[in-house]
Amino acid sequence: MTAGPETLARPSTVLKPAGTATPGLGRTRRLDRWWVAPTVQGLLFTICAAYLFISGILWTPIFGTAYEVDGYLSPLFSPLIAWKDMPTWLSPGLLILWIPIGFRATCYYYRKAYYRFYFADPPGCAVGEPRVHRRFALENALPFILQNLHRYLLYLAFIPLFFLWLDILPAFNIVPSADAADPRFRVGVGGLLLLVNVILLTGYSLSCHSLRHLVGGKIDCFSCTQARRVRYTLWQRLTDLNRNHMWWAWSSLITVTLADVYVRLLDAGVVTDQALRFGQ
Ligand code: FES
Fold first, then answer.
1. Distance from the CA of 246 to the center of ligand 1, in angstroms?
2. Is the pTM of this model over 0.85?
């Protein structure tokens, strides 16, 4: 059957459902201070994101500052992709940061958070949003349809994560780096910071909603085969992590920022690394 013109015609404006909240920006029957969390989260997110963008992409080309000091590599530059005649205007961070930035930008939790504090879409649960929002295509059109890339960015995110674990070896001098001032095994503030950071980043990646669905989704019967029972057990573990996905998201964002700040401060000579050293 051929579709007639009336079937193909689309309304010029598709309105999304009005929802149950009182229409109008900020209108609500809620009596609690619902605006505190989005405000705090918005400020923290903006500060961290702006700092990480400047430090990872602009700082080194403009000021020539080091991103690796005495075996401590800033997590923004791992894995380090640099070569001898690399243009000075190009930051090695740019070559790898698109993965974690894309992964976080499309994260289900961060989407909820920044839709609230940047777009008031909606500002909070049961809180009214601007009426113009009813005309938004949301994630059905560019640019927000790109949020669907999250699953693929999850796969890619395990690449820098793997290298961040490898960075722990020079950080503790288990495998001393070429510029190690003292090659003995050490437990320093920088190493502990990088270790906590990679643990939190691992928790963040493993608690991802997409990963949980990948492991436990599309199965009708969990107990039918041995392989499915294994998947069920794994899915339960990931579900435990997933319950605190918001916590993993914020804590890992903060430690990534702090780890980079620490390496920059070491390079500037503002702090010296306090470390216990063992061996000959
Ligand atoms: Fe947040 Fe996947 S949902 S990282």
1. 9
2. yes
